[in-house]
Amino acid sequence: MKLEKVACAPLSVQAVYLEKVFVAVILRLKRFGRRHRSFFRLNAIDRREPRDGRVIEQLGWYDPKAKEADQRVSLNRERIEYWLGVGAQPSNTVRGLLVKNGIAVGK
Fold first, then answer.
1. CA nearest to 64, candidates 72, 55, 53, 75
2. Which of 14, 36, 61, 68 has its CA 20 to 30 A from that of 2?
């Protein structure tokens, strides 16, 4: 077998490849339910995925229409703090939800 010398890819192509390796994670709500009866799951998702796209990990749920306050939200505090600790950024809505439930969010 004969080996040939191959030129390196341009720097911009290398940057795109590196971007796929280092994934930016965002904590985001994913919508479920029917019309006028929405229900959300809190998920860790790759930033480039759509709102209802593929999930890395499910971290809890939020039901804005629930009658009682204790039935409105359920969060896995330990895993949320892990994702925040490794650099995941919450969306604005999730940030407010976390603050209301006593989970410290940086910035």
1. 72
2. 14
What's the pLDDT tens digit per position in 37-54? 999 999 999 998 888 889
User: Residue range 82-88: average pLDDT?
Assistant: 92
Question: How far is it, in rounded angstroms, from Cα 107 to Cα 96?
Answer: 12
Residue 54 CA to residue 66 CA, distance in Å, equals: 26
**Tens of pLDDT, residues 88-102:** 999 999 999 999 999
CA distance 103 to 76: 10
**How is the chain split into domains, by residue range?**
24-100
81, 16 Cβ separation under 8 angstroms: no
What are the structure tokens assigned to 33, written together? 């339910």
Tell me, what amino acid is at 97?
L
> For residue 106, which amino acid is it?
G
Q: 24-100 in CATH: which number?
A: 3.30.1320.10
What type of residue sits at position 71?
Q
